[in-house]
Design a protein that fits this description.
This protein has 144 residues and is α+β, with helices and mostly antiparallel strands. It contains 4 helices and 5 strands; from the N terminus they run E-E-H-H-E-E-H-H-E.
């Protein structure tokens, strides 16, 4: 099977072509971001009508989403952490594989608090964590 997607190791910068690595995110970090957003909503929700009221300083204090990273198993500085969610490189060869993982991950309550959407967008043009080979999908204007 040809490889459309090649993960790029965040530590050494080389492609993970021997399927000896993975794409991973810290579930602990994602849960921390999720809890911060929940606390934000609780603080800023009007109990009378359920509306949200906040200012820019409230929003700017929210943490950034947890970042998905790619690493070779040997390069991963946090390889011993059990709290990480890892997708083996062997299971991310095609854009269709990413679609399957997106459906699976959609069930995880912490997913919206990661940069998974950015990972999916990177399958069009590539990035510092994903290299693209093979035909690129056509570009369509955004619907919004």
């Amino acid at each position: 099977m040809d490889r459309e997607l090649t993960l790029l190791c965040s530590t050494c910068g080389q492609g993970i072509v021997q399927d000896d690595g993975y794409l991973w995110v810290s579930r602990h970090e994602a849960n921390t971001v999720q809890q911060a957003y929940k606390a934000f909503e609780e603080r800023n929700t009007d109990p009378a009508d359920g509306s949200l009221a906040f200012d820019l300083t409230d929003i700017s204090a929210l943490p950034a989403p947890a970042v998905w990273q790619a690493d070779h198993s040997e390069c991963d500085p946090e390889r011993d952490k059990d709290s990480h969610y890892r997708i083996p490189a062997a299971r991310l060869r095609l854009r269709a594989d990413l679609l399957d993982w997106s459906a699976h991950l959609a069930e995880k309550p912490w997913l919206p608090h990661t940069d998974w959407r950015d990972v999916m967008r990177e399958t069009r043009t590539g990035s510092t964590r994903i290299a693209i080979s093979g035909p690129r999908p056509p570009a369509y204007p955004a619907a919004f």
